[in-house]
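Hello Y.,

Per our agreement to keep a running log of every chain we model this quarter, I'm adding this entry. I've kept the format consistent with earlier entries: sequence first, then predicted structure.
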Amino acid sequence: MKSLQEFVGLFAEQFEETDPSEITADTKFHDLDEYSSLLALSIIAMVDEEFDVVLKGDDMRNAVTLKDLYETIKSKK
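Predicted structure for the entry above:
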């Protein structure tokens, strides 16, 4: 299982306009200007590829921070 820091790095790679240094484990990702439903799909695909975990839309909606989302991924392993 990848670490929380590795997850944050992979998550940050999905953004084109947001500075990766702005994205931390405590980032409320729904509040990022660039975050959209299309980006959520990219994140779901990345999690499937990197973690072999299938996230649902509800998982994305219910998570507030990246740490929350990472914990959701860990719980599905």
